[in-house]
Automatic annotation (TrEMBL):
Keywords: Hydrolase. It comes from the Bacteria. One of its GO terms (molecular function) is hydrolase activity. The keyword Hydrolase applies. Residues 25-246 form the AB hydrolase-1 domain. The lineage of its organism: Bacteria, Bacillati, Actinomycetota, Actinomycetes, Kitasatosporales. This is Alpha/beta fold hydrolase. Pfam families: Abhydrolase_6. The keyword NADP does not apply.
């Protein structure tokens, strides 16, 4: 693991080898309490062992990456990714983007604003349509107030729960000392016009009980090349509770795309 310069920031990165010179698979994690480790023991290892080179990184403000006070909007996230790929010499060919939850939002946005960077998308229970921007902003605002007034990191540290205290302190800093909430609130849900503009193939993997499934169905109906995979028995916890089915779907899709490139 290392800190890689990218657009004036240092982003915490982890690369795993593949076989040959196929496109790199880049994983984008979710918000606040999430970081690259959520993929490390779930999808990244199997994808690397299947022969695909892998890049994991902590997004701006998360994990061990730098946490500037601003720049948490989607355009800046796409610019961060482009700068990171350039810094690592991975910008010579498109990459596969795999995004979980809000990471899927950033992956899809990157495919819209920087299509030349993206070979394909895998979206894992990502928020796409409806009132999710307002709902997420409200949820994050409540969490921010709770962290600020309850002094939870200090309480956890006093109980000897150091890892939880560290994660909670990072969440407190991100929610209460950056523009993250305001930047997310300034965004908007995707539209059918956005879906129709996608130039790359998409695999959308959602739990059958996910409240976000309706948006995935709109994506599947509107995007030129989109496969919707619905995994039984889970909701918004596909990555951790349906890992085997998710991994199979992702590897099948990556294998199909690798074969298409080879042909």
């Amino acid at each position: 693991m290392s800190l890689t310069p990218a657009g004036g920031l240092r982003l915490h990165t982890q690369r795993l080898p593949g076989r040959g010179d196929g496109p790199t698979v880049v994983f984008l994690h979710g918000l606040v309490m999430d970081n690259l480790s959520s993929f490390y023991c779930t999808l990244a290892g199997p994808v690397s062992r299947a022969g695909h080179p892998v890049l994991l990184y902590d997004q701006r403000g998360h994990g061990r990456s730098d946490r500037p006070p601003g720049g948490y909007d989607r355009d800046t996230a796409a610019a961060d990714l482009a700068a990171l790929l350039g810094s690592l010499g991975l910008d010579r060919r498109p990459v596969h983007l795999v995004g979980n939850s809000y990471g899927g939002v950033l992956a899809l946005h990157t495919a819209l604003v920087r299509p030349e960077l993206v070979a394909s998308l895998v979206l894992i229970d990502a928020q796409l349509t409806g009132d999710w921007v307002e709902d997420m902003t409200d949820t994050l605002s409540v969490a921010a107030l709770g962290l600020e007034h309850r002094r939870l990191p200090e309480q956890l540290a006093a109980l000897g729960r150091r890892k939880e205290a560290r994660l909670t302190a990072g969440a407190d800093a991100l929610l209460n000392r950056t523009s993250l909430i305001e930047d997310i609130a300034a965004g908007a849900a995707f539209t059918s016009h956005d879906f129709a503009r996608l130039r790359c193939p998409v695999l959308a993997v959602y739990g059958e009980h996910s409240e976000l499934l309706a948006g995935a169905r709109e994506l599947a109906a509107g995007a030129p090349d989109c496969e919707l995979c619905v995994l039984p028995g889970v909701g918004h916890t596909v990555l951790n509770e349906a890992t085997e089915g998710l991994c199979a779907a992702v590897l099948e899709r990556l294998g199909d795309r690798a074969g298409a490139v080879a042909r």
